[in-house]
Amino acid sequence: MSVYSAKDTLIFISTTSQDTEPANEAAYEALSYTEIGANGEVESIGRFGDTSNEVTFAGLKDGRITRAKGTRDAGTLDLVMAINYADPGQVALVAAEKTDFNYAFKIQFNDAPDGGTPSVRYFIGMVGSAAEEAEGVDAILKFHSSIWINSPVTRVDAAGA
């Protein structure tokens, strides 16, 4: 089993809004993307991926709770980065937050085997926030962006050469 560091994980936004989820991996790959934090400003991408709501039923006869899966939610991606007003990715996030549209996102992990390709995650989502933080005198100015994921996450595994 291999263990990978989050170091060198990259995140990208497509600056073209998406009316519908791209049909498959190839459709996502055909889009043009802008890297967010290309100069290394991204501190954290956060947690994402499907979680099911719990649906319960309490039977009178047996006094037991029966559970089922309900609505699935891929979550909210909470990006944290150092502010860089010249970063095209941060500029794109600010512009996307001002709209009511979905945008495609791409996350690339640093897990490629020797000579291979890394794993990638694709999804569409709305940019729900583009906020700045000045936490204190000994703190870096930060930019926070919440991305509301509105599709399943398309997973492309790392591949060998």
Sum up the structure in keywords.
161 residues, mainly beta, Factor Xa Inhibitor, eight-stranded antiparallel β-sheet, two-stranded antiparallel ribbon, 2 helices
Short description:
With 161 residues, the chain is mostly beta strands. It has two helices and ten strands. Helices cover 9% and strands 44% of the residues.
What are the SSEs and their pairings?
Elements: E1 10-18, H1 25-29, E2 34-36, E3 42-44, E4 51-58, E5 65-73, E6 76-82, H2 88-97, E7 102-108, E8 120-133, E9 142-149, E10 154-156
Antiparallel strand pairs: 1-2, 1-7, 3-6, 4-5, 6-9, 7-8, 8-9, 8-10
Question: Any overview of this molecule?
Answer:
With 161 residues, the protein is mainly beta. It contains 2 helices and 10 strands; from the N terminus they run βαβββββαββββ. The strands form 2 sheets. Strands 1, 2, 3, 6, 7, 8, 9 and 10 form an 8-stranded antiparallel beta sheet that branches. The radius of gyration is 19 Å and the shape is globular. The model has no long low-confidence stretch (mean pLDDT 95). This is Phage tail tube protein, TTP. It comes from Tropicimonas isoalkanivorans.
